[in-house]
């Protein structure tokens, strides 16, 4: 086996936020590879650092500026040694605050929005030639996916694939329509071609990504419009693709009366590769709050969707998003959220206090909920959600479940994998099982993972998988 030559220049991408940002970060590495940049997981020695940012969490921009302050000192030290270090800020904070970033941090070389990924090489060439303060936050008329290279760095056994971007929903609290633009769906042929390439590189599981992924309405090969359900059925025909997931969904796009993809519910029954786990944000159980949030669905709508999904796939587990303390939220509104959580039962969830995002409608609303009240409500909600997650994990004790084996675990002789419901699973297994889906018996349920053991049906002598080595270290993830 020959050693892989060292890249001429080293690229570090730090990623905040959602899986779509992780996908975009991988594509940045792809487009910069022809310029001689190879990915590194270490800041020390990096010739270029990209901060791929998220604007969802509170004080997101301040956390970016804090990171930039550290990079400024490193860039100055490099300059004193006669070496160059390019700093770029990408993603949703860049889109929302591009000019402000360059004014506050003039040492930043490049600021680009999430729709300009394919133009990053041209910006880097200009920065290498000595230009500074390069800003590209325009929503381009061309499809960025058409401009991205087909050749990609392997993601590994699990891969992300963006099929839809942008949002037309304009929820009161959300910046996505302003940072990612209007809804756009990639042509089905483009998605299928990328999926086949990912599988050829070793991917066994693909997660389809979109701000409103179940609003997908891409052009099909025959010129007709494909919804996500039809795309999933076509992906299921790809030999070697064992598991399919999709995130994030919107309840309205399941609803027939609003032109939703009702066949997507049937796909959970009919497509065995489609995993029985769904992230479906509801945000609140109060209809008054849902109207204030401009969610365009009711609590009853959400419950009817959940019931239909569970009828189609009885093993389905759900995750969701919740916001407490939206302006005007009363104790009765919060009680309605708690009642909905008890009614549904979630395997996992994300929950946050409301925080105003500049430029969003909710930022201008009066009737602010006191911080102490928001804190108390969030603690109460999170306690219930933790209990439900623990109960779901405990419900798997003694069950034999199919686990996709991914990589060595923390302990000698241990391998780590992924359950159908996204929990990490650890078991003592040979490393030759990497890439295999094997039956394991669950022996212990921890708060965020499961322990398992081999069964009589577990193959322990599988041949070593013929897979390409991962050519890129894991993109550094930063807490938002």
Output the number of helix runs: 13
Q: What CATH architecture of the domain at 9-142 do you see?
A: 3-Layer(aba) Sandwich
Q: Give me the Rg, rounded.
A: 23 Å
Unreliable stretches covering 5 or more consecutive residues: 464-480
User: What is the fourth-level CATH superfamily of the domain at 9-142?
Assistant: Methylthiotransferase, N-terminal domain
Give the overall silhouette: globular
- Binned, the helix content reads 25-40%
Major sheet, described briefly? 7 strands, parallel
Proportion of beta-strand residues: 15-25%
Provide the residue-averaged pLDDT. 90
Secondary structure class reads alpha/beta
Could you write a compact summary of the structure shown?
The protein is an alpha/beta fold and 480 residues long.
Structural write-up:
By secondary structure, this protein is of the alpha/beta class. Among the domains are: 134 residues, 3-Layer(aba) Sandwich (Rossmann fold); 122 residues, 2-Layer Sandwich (Transcription Regulator spoIIAA), CATH 3.30.750; 55 residues, OB fold (Dihydrolipoamide Acetyltransferase, E2P) (Beta Barrel). It is 32% helix and 22% strand. The protein contains 13 helices and 22 strands. Strands 1, 2, 3, 4, 5, 6 and 22 form a seven-stranded parallel beta sheet that branches. It has a five-stranded mixed barrel with strand order 17-18-19-21-20. Strand 15, helix 12 and strand 16 form a beta-alpha-beta unit. Helix 8 packs parallel to helix 9 and helix 12 runs parallel beside helix 13.
């Amino acid at each position: 086996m020959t050693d892989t030559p060292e890249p001429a220049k080293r690229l570090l991408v730090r990623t905040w936020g959602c899986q779509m940002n992780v996908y975009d970060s991988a594509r940045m590495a792809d487009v910069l590879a022809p310029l001689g940049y190879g990915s590194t997981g270490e800041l020390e020695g990096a010739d270029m650092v990209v901060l791929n940012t998220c604007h969802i969490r509170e004080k997101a921009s301040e956390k970016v500026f804090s990171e930039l302050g550290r990079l400024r000192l490193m860039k100055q030290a490099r300059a004193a040694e006669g070496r160059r270090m390019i700093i770029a800020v990408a993603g949703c904070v860049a889109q929302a605050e591009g000019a402000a970033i360059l004014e506050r941090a003039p040492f930043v070389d490049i600021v680009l929005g999430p729709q300009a990924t394919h133009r990053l090489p041209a910006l880097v060439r200009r920065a290498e030639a000595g230009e500074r303060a390069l800003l590209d936050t325009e929503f381009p008329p061309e499809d960025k996916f058409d401009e991205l290279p087909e050749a990609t760095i392997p993601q590994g056994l699990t891969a992300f694939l963006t099929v839809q971007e942008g949002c037309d929903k304009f929820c009161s609290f959300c910046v996505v329509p302003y940072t990612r633009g209007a809804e756009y769906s990639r042509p089905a042929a483009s998605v299928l071609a990328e999926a086949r390439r990912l599988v050829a590189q070793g991917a066994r599981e693909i997660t389809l990504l979109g701000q409103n992924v179940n609003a997908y309405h891409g052009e099909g090969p025959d010129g007709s419009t494909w919804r996500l359900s039809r795309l999933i059925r076509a992906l299921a025909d790809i030999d070697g693709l064992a598991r399919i997931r999709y995130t994030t969904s919107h309840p309205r796009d399941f609803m027939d009366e609003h032109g939703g993809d009702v066949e997507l519910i049937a796909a959970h029954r009919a497509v065995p590769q489609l995993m029985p786990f769904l992230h479906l944000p509801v945000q609140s159980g109060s209809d008054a709050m849902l109207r204030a949030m401009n969610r365009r669905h009711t609590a009853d709508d959400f419950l009817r969707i959940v019931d239909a999904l569970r009828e189609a796939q009885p093993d389905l587990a759900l995750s969701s998003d919740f916001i407490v303390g939206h302006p005007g939220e009363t104790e009765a509104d919060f009680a309605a959220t708690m009642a909905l959580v008890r009614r549904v039962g979630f395997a996992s969830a994300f929950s946050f206090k409301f925080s105003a995002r500049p430029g969003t409608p909710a930022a201008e609303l009066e009737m602010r909920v006191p911080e102490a009240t928001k804190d108390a409500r969030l603690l109460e909600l999170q306690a219930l959600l933790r209990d439900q997650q623990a109960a779901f994990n405990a419900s798997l004790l003694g069950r034999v479940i199919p686990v996709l084996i991914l990589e060595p675990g923390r302990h000698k002789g241990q391998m780590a994998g992924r359950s159908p419901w996204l929990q990490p699973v650890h078991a003592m297994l040979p490393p030759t099982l990497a890439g295999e889906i094997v039956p394991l018996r669950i022996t212990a349920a921890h708060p965020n993972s499961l322990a398992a053991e081999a069964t009589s049906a577990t193959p322990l002598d599988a041949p070593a998988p013929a897979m390409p080595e991962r050519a890129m270290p894991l993109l550094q993830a930063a807490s938002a």
